[in-house]
Write a structure and sequence with these properties.
Blueprint (H helix, E strand, L loop, with lengths): L1 H22 L5 H30 L10 H12 L19 H13 L6 H10 L4 H5 L10 H12 L2 H13 L8 H20 L8 H10 L3 H11 L8 H22 E5 L5 E6 L5 E3 L26 H4 L3 H8 L18
Helix pairs in contact: 1-2, 5-7, 8-9, 9-12
Protein name: Gag-pol polyprotein
């Protein structure tokens, strides 16, 4: 029943799409044809999968002759998943070296290596995910079926530079600071070091043997309190601790700091049902953050008529001549500033 419904929807889509293409401008026809081809591919995939399922249901002990091994695996995966998976988002690439490996692997597996997508569509996808310096690398290439492979080749030649990638990840690994003790800064250190080491390992470097070096670099950049705690904890570890030991210590330390910070602010309910925030100090006292403790709104007093406004809004002051205004404003008791370029004769 579902297969029949999809096939009837496909027929309705073709009729409506033909009407759209007859009425749109010639300049928009190419874009509409591309959209039509993508939608038709989705319909064809659904219909093909549906027919394969029907045939396998009629002959459960025999694989469908129209299904390859890949199709059978795809069908079995979809049979086991009873919910819609989230769409994989491809990150945009702006030419930053440390983002290249992630973009290359994601775009390559989802689009570049997908034989079901035509090169012209791959080119459009590629342009939509590039910006900045990366977009300028292929900006001179005309968008066409033949030029896609050349565009991807130019990007790889420009950014898939192993020496540059290693250099950038090493610089990122060695250049970071942790000036103050906080749970966020300690978690950042763990994520920052892990990300760069994983990238360097992908590039073929023996990062699994760098534990002593990385521990020395990280411990030298810790804040004074965390550094002291680490040296104390280090005495309980083997003579040469591993990088995993350091990460476990930093994670536990971050958990403690997060708990302490969370407990500093407590919410209490008064007898009238109002909620107040109490900030607990180190000595156990609390500061009340109720609205009554907020500073009062600032008021102004005119120096000419003592009205509740500033002097330049005073009707008496504005009614004076420019020379009289200067005289009033420069009186010592008023202590008002006059711009040096002010000229009463031309005011």
């Amino acid at each position: 029943m579902k297969l029949s419904r999809i096939e009837s929807l496909f027929s309705e889509f073709e009729e409506l799409q033909n009407q759209i293409e007859e009425k749109i401008a010639a300049s928009d026809l190419n874009t509409e044809l591309i959209s039509r081809e993508l939608i038709e591919q989705d319909f064809n995939n659904c219909i093909s999968i549906g027919r394969s399922l029907v045939q396998r249901g009629l002959q459960p002990n025999q694989p469908s002759p129209h299904c390859s091994n890949n199709d059978s695996h795809f069908t079995s995966v979809n049979e086991s998943v009873s919910f819609k998976l989230p769409v994989i988002q491809i990150p945009k690439f702006d030419g930053t070296y440390y983002k290249w490996l992630e973009f290359k692997e994601t775009f390559g597996s989802l689009i570049n290596d997908n034989d079901k997508i035509q090169n012209i569509h791959k080119f459009h996808y590629l342009i939509s995910y590039l910006e900045g310096e990366a977009a300028r690398v292929i900006c001179n290439l005309e968008v066409s079926h033949q030029n896609y492979n050349e565009a991807w080749k130019l990007l790889c030649e420009r950014f898939d530079n192993k020496r540059q990638l290693i250099s950038n990840h090493l610089n990122s690994l060695f250049n970071f600071t942790c000036e103050r003790e906080s749970d966020k800064s300690l978690r950042f250190i763990i994520d920052h070091v892990t990300k760069n080491l994983r990238a360097l390992s992908t590039l073929g470097l023996p990062t699994e043997k760098w534990d002593v070096l990385i521990i020395h670099i990280v411990s030298a950049r810790l804040d004074s309190t965390t550094s002291l705690k680490w040296e104390e904890h280090r005495n309980t570890l083997p003579e040469i601790p591993s990088l995993k030991d350091l990460f476990i210590f930093l994670k536990c330390r971050a958990d403690v700091l997060e708990s302490v910070h969370r407990n500093k602010t407590k919410q209490v309910t008064t007898s009238k049902g109002q909620t107040k925030s109490l900030i607990v100090t180190s000595k156990g006292s609390s500061l009340n953050n109720s609205p009554s403790c907020k500073p009062s709104k600032r008021t102004f007093e005119c120096m000419v008529c003592k009205g509740d406004y500033r002097i330049f809004e005073c009707p008496d002051f504005k009614s004076k001549t420019p020379e009289e205004r200067v005289t009033t404003a420069t009186r010592a008791i008023n202590r008002l500033c006059i711009l040096p370029i002010y000229d009463a004769s031309t005011a």
